[in-house]
Amino acid sequence: MPSSHSKRVLLAAPRGYCAGVDRAVIAVEKALELHGAPIYVRKEIVHNKYVVETLTERGAIFVSETEEVPEGARVVFSAHGVSPAVREAANARSLISIDATCPLVTKVHKEAVRFAREDQTILLIGHAGHEEVEGTAGEAPKNTIIVNSPEDVAGLEVADPDNVVWLSQTTLSVDETMETVGRLRERFPNLQDPPSDDICYATQNRQVAVKKIAPDVELMIVVGSANSSNSVRLVEVALQSGADASYRIDRAREIDDKWFDGVTSVGVTSGASVPEILVRDVLDYLAARGYDTVEEVRTATEDLMFSLPHEIRADLKAREAAASA
């Protein structure tokens, strides 16, 4: 086993919360502050156990469908977005909706609507059953075919091979998505690209940081929940980029000491829905085991911020007006 002074941690930057996640979590916090508990949230506001547990303790109630929300109550739509059918169901129950959909997901929704209006077949690269994919496909259900993986491409059947466009879930592996697009283009040479890259800046940035670190570490620890697509992808990217081993954990207590046999360098990163406190807990765990030299490896600087949902902004403005009256 190497001596303690030779042990080090390479800490990925960027990591953790992206602008869309930050906006969504704050939206729920502000709704609770403005209106009191309970505030209902359809699905997990973001895919992170700790965040969901923390908001639950503060009075948020997470439900699977709008039918579970009492008529007339407030409901927050998660960062992953919802289909028009979900909005209609909420309106039918007279729910007061707060839309915390990430603006980058909203962009993909608008693209789907536009392409469907042009009667194009939309090949949506993403994981069937994921909330984001359900929401995007729901914008144009008759025109959308979900492509789960590169292997799905060979079996695709479309109405007009010369009138197809691809879109993607925002949290996928950049490399796998490009492999899928390459195969799609082989099958459909006139495949149209979206007007801009759908994979979100934060997903790409976190993957680039992991690619930079992975060749220099024996072990990569990714903090993130099992249902977080971008966190799961980071594990795959680490292994593909040279790390000997890579594990995803929700909390530091899930780390297994057996992972560290013969390991001198550990990489640490976190998915886009992970609060920094969970990363700090991992660093404390590692420091207690001799990995107390931490070097941050920065590959990008993120300064993007999104304004809060307009419903929250309107409520804050109304409160300010009442206070000054």
TrEMBL record:
Annotated (2E)-4-hydroxy-3-methylbut-2-enyl diphosphate binding lies at H47, H80, H130, T170, S228, S229, N230, S273
UniProt: dimethylallyl diphosphate binding residues: H47, H80, H130, S228, S229, N230, S273
BP terms from Gene Ontology: dimethylallyl diphosphate biosynthetic process; isopentenyl diphosphate biosynthetic process, methylerythritol 4-phosphate pathway; terpenoid biosynthetic process
Sites where the protein binds [4Fe-4S] cluster: C18, C102, C200
- Required co-factors: [4Fe-4S] cluster
Q: Quote the EC number.
A: 1.17.7.4
Q: Can you tell me which residues bind isopentenyl diphosphate?
A: H47, H80, H130, S228, S229, N230, S273
Provide the active-site residues from the annotation.
E132 (proton donor)
Query: From the Swiss-Prot or TrEMBL record, what is one GO molecular function term?
Result: 4 iron, 4 sulfur cluster binding
Its keywords, alphabetically, are: 4Fe-4S, Iron, Iron-sulfur, Isoprene biosynthesis, Metal-binding, Oxidoreductase
* Co-factor remark: Binds 1 [4Fe-4S] cluster per subunit.
Q: Give the catalytic activity.
A: dimethylallyl diphosphate + 2 oxidized [2Fe-2S]-[ferredoxin] + H2O = (2E)-4-hydroxy-3-methylbut-2-enyl diphosphate + 2 reduced [2Fe-2S]-[ferredoxin] + 2 H(+); isopentenyl diphosphate + 2 oxidized [2Fe-2S]-[ferredoxin] + H2O = (2E)-4-hydroxy-3-methylbut-2-enyl diphosphate + 2 reduced [2Fe-2S]-[ferredoxin] + 2 H(+)
- Name the PANTHER family for this protein: 4-HYDROXY-3-METHYLBUT-2-ENYL DIPHOSPHATE REDUCTASE (PTHR30426:SF0)
Q: What is this protein called?
A: 4-hydroxy-3-methylbut-2-enyl diphosphate reductase
